[in-house]
Amino acid sequence: MLLEQYCIGPYQNFTYLVAEADGGEGVVIDPSYGIDPVLAAIDRHSVRVRFILNTHRHPDHIAGNQEVRERTGAKVVAHRSAPIGQDLSVDDGEQFSAGRIRFEVAHTPGHTPDSVLYLFEGQVATGDTLFVGECGRTDLPEGSPEQMYDSLLRRVVALDDALVVLPGHDYGVTPTSTIGREKKENYTLQPRTKEQFLRFLRE
């Protein structure tokens, strides 16, 4: 499998190019501002991009959608509640494929109502739900600390420890991690009641 991570745009966004192999089918995850290096990689590897996967609605995660779509003809995928005019709306537990790579959707609201994870081939693209050592903000419009509690401390912690975390921003000490490592080291994933979690976020 081809998996390349690009830190682009003014907000240290990570955009991912994923494909079966050179010349194979693939996807682009969260195309941000300054998408040219990713477009060049698509050409260099002759990837047939079938889908553009958006983890949530914020502009820095969808800014490159149109350019990738125009270059490749790929369809934009997002949660059914995302207001971005996606071509394919998905919900929790749904699966789809790009060539031999199978993707599964996990709905994890909290940062935004439409936040999702994409699980594939031992990886999990977490967008702004989970960073290396941190979690996404819940104090922006439509953020929900209560939903973030459920997403992190019920959904994320139940994932396979071996999954490689592909975060939405380069905010951590390393560009990637694993679910197991984050459960041990990420202070936002430590066991708390919902009341403790909400108090923790306020503080």
Written description of the protein model:
- The chain is α/β, with parallel strands linked by helices and 203 residues long.
- It has a single domain, classed as 4-Layer Sandwich (Metallo-beta-lactamase, Chain A).
- It has 6 helices and 14 strands.
- The protein has helices at residues 36-44, 59-62, 65-72, 145-155, 179-185, 194-202; strands spanning 2-8, 13-19, 25-29, 48-53, 75-79, 88-90, 95-98, 101-107, 116-120, 123-127, 130-131, 134-135, 164-167, 177-178.
- The strands form 3 sheets. A 6-stranded mixed β-sheet has the order 1-2-3-4-5-6, covered by helices on one side. A 6-stranded mixed β-sheet has the order 7-8-9-10-13-14. A two-stranded antiparallel sheet has the order 11-12.
- A hairpin with a 2-residue loop joins strand 11 and strand 12.
List the helices and strands and how they pair.
Elements (H helix, E strand, L loop, with lengths): L1 E7 L4 E7 L5 E5 L6 H9 L3 E6 L5 H4 L2 H8 L2 E5 L8 E3 L4 E4 L2 E7 L8 E5 L2 E5 L2 E2 L2 E2 L9 H11 L8 E4 L9 E2 H7 L8 H9 L1
Parallel strand pairs: 3-4, 4-5, 5-6, 10-13
Antiparallel strand pairs: 1-2, 2-3, 7-8, 8-9, 9-10, 11-12, 13-14
Helix pairs in contact: 4-6
**Terminal Cα separation, in Å?**
42 Å
Fold-level CATH name: Metallo-beta-lactamase, Chain A
The largest sheet has its strands arranged as 1-2-3-4-5-6
* Highest CATH level, the class: Alpha Beta
The tally of strands reads: 14
Helix content: 10-25%
Number of helices: 6
List the main descriptive attributes of the protein structure presented here.
alpha/beta
